[in-house]
Design goal:
Elements: H1 3-20, E1 41-42, H2 49-52, E2 58-66, E3 72-73, E4 76-77, E5 81-92, E6 99-109, E7 111-112, E8 115-119, E9 150-154, H3 169-195, E10 201-207, H4 209-220, E11 227-231, H5 237-254, H6 267-281, H7 295-301, H8 304-307, H9 322-333, H10 356-365, H11 369-378, H12 390-396, H13 399-406, H14 417-420, H15 430-434, E12 438-444, H16 452-465, E13 474-479, H17 497-506, E14 513-516, E15 539-542, E16 548-551, E17 563-566
Parallel strand pairs: 8-9, 8-10, 10-11, 11-12, 12-13
Antiparallel strand pairs: 1-7, 2-5, 3-4, 5-6, 6-9, 14-15, 16-17
Length: 567
């Protein structure tokens, strides 16, 4: 019997005992277990931890007292804490001869709130960044460490943010999911050693690949965490990367300067499309405010061929050529192989196309970051490192071959990328649900690399798997205008960790999350993508899907209080 089945069975038994009066397990209004609130403790000693910690396959390299104010968040001093550094499973690869280990750091507050936060990092990992704990969005005003959580950050099993580790089969698996599985019990042991008790509640969260890590944990390690905070998840990351490579080919075919993909869809042309989307969809929420709140309705209302002028002569930024409409429209509908096989997902038309962040992912990352990941980390076998060239791989490689190879295995690479990178059975989160855990997901509608359409499709499948409504343990929040994790013409500054804690530990489900823009003077950093006619302090409610924010019909459109979440 596997661990997930044991846990589910045990939870069912606990619920049965509750119904018979044989246990003090509490249930909420939905009939699911209601987890209790965490209680805090004080750190006895930082310096002694280095000698007290004794965990299998783990080497502690330091335990350092960090004074209050050494770290800051939004200009505020983070309280005093202990930084513990170390490595797990140090080894030398028998495949590429390189040295590998899972590097990590933990930050343990002197005044601990009784909670643990696993910081799932982005990109291809490879760096032990400060363990502060993201709370969501751009320009954060707070973090988990500042709120009193004990936080871990790790490099996911390789020591550089490059794709070369993909030659080692075990490093692939650690990056995909095994590092989380190995680090989690070790981190809880360190917490127990430091405070004299295990964490009462455990949370995991991150954005981008960190969102993928978190979704994988929700499927594989539901027994280890009580709250999951998922941002812009690339939960089908290998497929999204191949789709972005398909985009590179497409934009290059339109480019007036071959090799410069941005000339295939210029800034003026991207602004033209964004403005056309706003003209058709902005007022669907009851007011013209530069935000498309109802993303789903907009896809039905907007038509690229009809609503954007077609060039009768040369391209000049006021129109799209017929070839552009066919090619770009095809990418938004969902990139395909030469034989028509859909690679990944459709993308939503939204107002955030005319930004540097959108362009960077489409025109630069597709030639470099995505190619290295597909060719070296996910393909079986990987490309020859000695001759590999990212742009050449993107512009001249065969999409169908890439798709086949990321799903392939061989004697050396015995688990495919579509297995080690993706959550197994992503719409079956019954183990998470049945033990009283909760998951909150957010995704920017203008994300250029991981499609919010893909996340919406996942959430609809989750709803279907739960009788049409999964809101008693999961909530999904679309963020209008937001690019990849932050930026774009959007209200992208929000804290989703605090409401997740309220939901997990006190049963208060988040009916909306307050988001603000990052205008001039913002303590978390200014968002350069904001339109000039927005106030610097605009706020909006982020609504749980399928609800969207609608203007109430009166009051300032700069104030979230004048919007409500409606179906």
């Amino acid at each position: 019997m596997n661990k997930q089945l044991i846990m589910t069975t045990a939870t069912g038994a606990a619920l049965l005992l509750t119904a018979c009066g044989g246990s003090n397990v509490k249930t909420n209004a939905a009939g699911l277990p209601q987890l209790g609130a965490a209680t805090g403790a004080s750190l006895a000693s930082c310096a002694e931890l280095a000698t007290k910690i004794n965990f299998a396959n783990t080497t502690i390299t330091g335990a350092n007292a960090i004074a209050a104010g050494t770290l800051t968040v939004a200009g505020k001093p983070v309280p005093a804490h202990c930084q513990v550094t170390g490595q797990m499973y140090k080894r030398t690869s028998t495949v590429d001869g390189k040295s590998y280990a899972i590097g990590f750091e933990m930050r343990l507050p002197n005044n601990w709130n009784g909670r643990f936060f696993y910081q799932a990092n982005g990109g291809v990992d490879g760096s032990v960044v400060p363990a502060t704990g993201p709370v969501g969005g751009g320009g954060p005003l707070d973090n988990a460490l500042n709120q009193g959580f004990a936080v871990i950050s790790a490099d996911a099993g390789h020591g550089a943010p490059t794709p070369f580790f993909g030659l080692d089969p075990q490093a692939r698996l650690d990056y995909g999911y095994q590092a989380v599985g190995k680090l989690t019990p070790m981190a809880k042991y360190i917490i127990e050693t430091a405070y004299g008790k295990k964490p009462d509640r455990s949370y995991i969260g991150g954005c981008s690949n960190g969102g993928r890590h978190t979704m994988v944990a929700a499927a594989r390690y539901a027994d280890q965490y009580d709250g999951f905070l998922v941002g812009n998840p690339g939960y089908r990351l290998p497929l999204a990367a191949i789709a972005n490579i398909a985009g590179a080919k497409a934009y290059n075919s339109l480019a007036t300067t071959p090799g410069d993909l941005s000339t295939g869809f210029t800034l003026a042309e991207r602004k033209l499309v964004s403005d056309a989307v706003l003209a058709k969809c902005d007022e669907l929420d009851g007011t013209a405010d530069g935000l498309v709140q109802n993303t789903q309705a907009c896809q039905a209302a907007f038509d690229l061929n009809r609503d954007v002028p077609t060039c009768s002569a040369s391209r000049d930024g006021t129109c799209l050529s017929a070839a552009q409409k066919t090619t770009i429209g095809g990418l938004f509908a969902g990139a395909t192989t030469a034989t028509g096989t859909k690679i990944y997902s459709s993308f939503s038309y939204d107002a955030g196309l005319a930004t540097g962040g959108w362009a960077s992912w489409k025109f630069n990352s597709s030639l470099n970051l995505d190619t290295g990941a597909v060719g070296l980390i996910w393909q079986a076998p990987p490309e020859d490192l000695a001759t590999f060239n990212g742009p050449n791989f993107a512009l001249n490689g065969d999409l169908a071959s890439m798709l086949a190879k990321v799903g392939a295995t061989n004697a050396t690479y015995t688990e495919s990328a579509l297995s080690f990178m993706l959550p197994p059975n992503p719409s079956d989160l019954s183990a998470l649900r049945n033990r009283g855990a909760k998951i909150m997901v957010y995704h920017g509608a203008s994300d250029p690399i991981f499609s919010s359409d893909d996340t919406t499709a996942w959430y609809n499948a989750l709803r279907t798997a739960n009788g049409g409504d999964a809101s008693n343990f999961s909530r999904y929040f679309n963020v209008p205008g937001m690019n990849h994790c932050a930026g774009g013409p959007t209200a992208d500054q929000f804290d989703m960790l605090a409401p997740l804690v309220e939901w997990v530990e006190r049963g208060k489900a988040p009916d909306s999350v307050l988001a603000s823009v990052r205008g001039a003077g913002n303590a978390g950093g200014v968002n350069a993508d904001l339109p000039a006619n927005w106030t610097a302090t605009r706020t909006r409610p982020l609504c749980p899907y399928p609800k969207t924010a609608k203007y109430k019909g009166g009051g300032s459109i700069e104030d979230a209080a004048n919007f409500s979440c409606e179906s």
